[in-house]
Amino acid sequence: MGLQRLARPLWILSGLVALALGALGAVLPLLPTTPFILLSAFCFARSSPRLHDWLLTHRIFGPLILNWEREGAISRRAKIAAVSMMAITPVITILIGAPIWALLAQIAVLAGAATFVLTRPSPSNNAN
Length: 128
Prior knowledge:
By secondary structure, this protein is an all-alpha fold. The protein is 74% helix and 0% strand. The termini are far apart.
């Protein structure tokens, strides 16, 4: 009984943290947006129907989540934004003078992430 009472607040807290990280990721090139928004939807689905519904009907995040839940799809607009930020990130890393090993590791990780994003289908409803 004690764990059940703790589970809901922990899911809500996790969802809020993921949502905050996703929102930060929209403006910070080193932080992804989509995975954190999807994680927040997952957490809210287990803890708060009100927060989950709010996220699903959100003007910006709602379509992203619904496309993923329905089809495992990422819109063309989201792909372009994600890959653009991934391309800019190593440039920023060079400009701040990070060590070469950090740059190479970053490029390897970002190449994998970009491959994943680009190989997801686009939504069948042709949403951008």
